[in-house]
Amino acid sequence: MLGLFTGPSPAVHEFMSPQDYVQQKAAASGSSFYYAFLFLPPARRAAITAFYAFCREVDDVVDEVDDPGVAQNKLAWWRTEVAQAFSGQPSHPVMQALLPHAGAYGIEQRHLQAVIEGCQMDLEQTRYLDYAGLQRYCHLVAGIVGEVSAHIFGQTQAATTDYAHKLGLAFQLTNIIRDVGEDALRGRIYLPVNELQRFDVKAHEILKRQYSERFSALMRFQAERAHALYDEALALLPAADRRAQKPGLMMASIYRTLLREIERDDFRVLHQRIALTPLRKLWLAWKVQALGRL
């Protein structure tokens, strides 16, 4: 790797356009988001794919770089790259793919810098004292992502931004529930400290992958909160934007189905990562597209 550059080597760039690069980045992630993108018109699909690839790039800095100092430098590089890109000088293929869509879909520099700030929090904080503190983190890494996504999908009503933030929070809490064991291996516990105390679950029990009735009760509480957020988000979506926001509704169907699978498995998330098959994700997305049902 040369300097702080977090993308592929120059040799890769010679054979891959920025559009191909972000498409490969999005597809390789296997994320639920990718299946929702498939049903979008080409221009919107290109925009959301590039934005999602950006989110993956900065998130991977935190998750895949073992040295915190190196990760800090990489995020600093990304802050500079975003600023330079919005002044007309993008150098990374992700920014080269994303910038042409920024004006059309209201993507601003502050949005991308907020996502980087959220990833920065992962380097500086491994615990959250309460839900209010966790919400600040979720706002940056999920609420902002939801806001940008809603604009790309085709927002016409101001209230759709509130829906997007609420849905992003529901997605992030679902991710936290799913990834408790995986995050613990990285020394991170996102479940609020005061809620661990309320259910008498010790941090060392999570780090050592020890299940208990207390842990199950704690996780049921987290799942109930996430379900309530899905309901609140859907109630906030204006009818005028429901058709345009179908990709978000597809993701809601996929994520909520995943949450129910985790519940059915009695929250056995400390030793494994529960997931839906690609075919099932595609089926759930298609049902929303074709039938309008979650």
Instruction: Return the CATH topology of the largest domain.
Output: Farnesyl Diphosphate Synthase
Number of strands: 0
Number of domains: 2
Question: How big is the Rg?
Answer: 19 Å
CATH level-4 homologous superfamily of the largest domain: Farnesyl Diphosphate Synthase
Largest sheet data: none
Order of helices and strands: HHHHHHHHHHHHHHH
Helicity, as a percent range: over 70%
Query: pLDDT under 50 segments (min length 5)?
Result: 1-12
- Number of helical segments? 15
Strand content: under 5%
Q: For this structure, what is the CATH class of the largest domain?
A: Mainly Alpha
CA(first)-CA(last) distance: 44 Å
Overall pLDDT metric: 91
Q: What is the CATH architecture assignment of the largest domain?
A: Orthogonal Bundle
Rough outline? globular
Given helix and strand content, the structural type is: mainly alpha
What's the helix and strand layout?
Layout: H1 10-15, H2 18-29, H3 32-37, H4 42-64, H5 68-86, H6 93-105, H7 109-124, H8 131-153, H9 159-178, H10 180-185, H11 193-198, H12 203-207, H13 213-236, H14 246-264, H15 278-291
Helix pairs in contact: 2-4, 2-6, 4-6, 4-7, 4-8, 5-7, 7-8, 8-9, 9-13, 9-14, 13-14, 14-15
